[in-house]
Design brief:
9-stranded mixed β-sheet; 3-stranded antiparallel β-sheet; 299 residues; globular; alpha/beta; 24% strand; 2 domains; N-terminal domain of TfIIb
């Protein structure tokens, strides 16, 4: 029988300090309270956190479906992902069926939810959070270059992403936002079986289409920056002819697509190494299905 229901992970990236602080404060607040009965907590990447780095060898949040080979068997994050699954996965001694992975971003994403794929349980939990807090949802799917995310390794899981905040920088406003959501989730999970879940009629999604890199020259050096009109404008629609970049010759490079899209993670500092300047999404409205509730309650 599963004793705990919800695993809260912070510090998956070692230079994202605010989720770690928020969890410490939250644990102090709920010590010996009914909320603590259903919650488990862990640090995702303690070594990277100690050094103030995003990761030691490879991105932990891309390491949960990595095939172990001779070339990566000593990678800290590959082994760490195996440990987290063995300890907190469905077969582990501290088994939790639901996971919430806490992150911050340097992009102007506000407080948002990130989903990976279209699992019914994820939809149910995301719909509840959106109805309560009005949070936008980024549905990340069909990107073969970005896989192996932590929450995908559990039967149900969401990312809570808050920004903007600089890497390795504490921000008390950011931590308070995490605390509000953690408190709500603690009550929700603790009383899940006793409370009737009311879903909204629909859920609003921003569905991933593709990611784009910075423009580069023949030497593969970045030769254009994100246009000032795009900075701090995540979640806002753009259409053909709207500016995306401004190059080294002060020329504006525009969006040439025919469909209206919504850029997200605009200028995320950690994504430059992944050759991502921003990600394009389309807005989708999905009718909520009552079967999502029974799926979540089946744990």
């Amino acid at each position: 029988m599963i004793a705990k229901k919800l695993l809260i992970v912070s510090g998956t990236h070692g230079n994202e300090l605010n989720p770690v602080w928020a969890v410490k404060k939250f644990r102090n607040l709920i010590n010996r309270s009914p909320q603590s009965n259903s919650l488990e907590f862990t640090l995702g990447n303690p070594k990277a956190l100690e050094k103030g780095l995003r990761y030691i060898d490879v991105d932990l949040n891309r390491s949960f479906n990595v095939l172990k080979t001779a070339s990566n068997q000593n990678f800290y994050e590959v082994n760490r992902s195996e440990y987290l699954i063995s300890e907190y996965g469905i077969q582990g001694p501290k088994s939790c069926p639901i996971v919430i992975d806490l992150h911050t971003t340097t992009s102007c994403m506000g407080t948002s939810i990130v989903m990976y794929g279209r699992r019914q349980r994820d939809f149910c939990l995301a719909a509840i959070l959106q109805a309560k807090f009005g949070l936008p949802i980024y549905l990340h799917e069909k990107d073969v270059n970005q896989t192996g995310f932590l929450v995908e390794a559990w039967p149900c899981g969401l990312v809570i992403e808050i920004g903007p905040v600089a890497q390795n920088h504490f921000d008390s406003e950011i931590t308070e936002r995490f605390l509000i959501i953690l408190s709500f989730l603690g009550d929700l999970i603790n009383n899940l079986e006793n409370n009737r879940i009311n879903l909204p009629s629909e859920i609003s999604l921003f569905v991933h289409q593709k990611s784009i890199d910075y423009p580069r020259n023949e030497n593969n050096d970045i030769n254009a920056l994100i246009h000032p009109l795009r900075i701090n404008n995540d979640w806002k629609m753009i259409e053909e002819g709207d500016p995306l970049f401004i190059n080294i010759d002060n020329e504006t490079l525009t969006y040439s697509g025919k469909e209206k899209i919504y850029p997200l993670f605009i200028g995320e500092a950690a994504y430059r190494e992944k050759n991502i300047a921003m990600s394009f999404t389309k807005k989708e409205i999905l009718k909520c299905n009552q079967s999502w509730i029974s799926s979540l309650l089946s744990f």
